[in-house]
Amino acid sequence: SFDVRAGKRLADRSRCDGFEGAPESGVQDVAFLPRGGMAYACGQLWLQSPAKGAVQLEPPGTNVTHLAVSKNSTESPLLYWTVVNGGTSTAKTLSLLR
Asked: pLDDT tens digit string along 34-45?
C-alpha cells in the first residue's frame, strides 16, 4: 500500500511470501482501518499503521480468519479476528486507540 499524498510505500506483502510450514503464501484476508492503517493475515497477523509502522499480532503458523473492523461512535475502533487451531476457534479483539 502507498501513501498517495506523500508518494511513499507504507507496506508490502513480502512478510507474507512463504515461510516455513505455510501451505499458501500471500495475503489471505485484509481489513482497512481508519486513518490509512490496515491489518492483514497470511498464516500470521500484521497491523500496519502509517504512524507506528508494522506490528505483528499473531506469530507465523497461526491460522487467522475473519478480519473485521468496527467503528463505534462512543469508543475507539476495534479490530476483530479469529484464530483457528484444529477444531477450536478463538475470537480476538484489539482496541485501535485514536
From this structure: 777 889 998 899
Counting beta carbons within 10 angstroms of the beta carbon of residue 62, is it exposed (0 to 12), middle (13 to 18) or buried (19 or more)?
middle
Please give the Cα distance from 14 to 18 (Å, whole number). Answer: 9
pLDDT in tens, 68-85: 999 876 678 899 999 999
Tell me if 6 sits within 8 A of 12, measured CB to CB.
no
Query: Cell for 46?
Result: 500484521
pTM of the prediction?
0.76
Q: Please tell me what DSSP assigns to residue 33.
A: P
Whether 38 contacts 11, CB under 8 Å? yes
User: Which amino acid is it at 76?
Assistant: S
- Beta-carbon contacts of 62 under 8 Å, excluding residues fewer than 6 positions away, are 43, 44, 45, 83
Cβ contact 45:59 at 8 Å = no
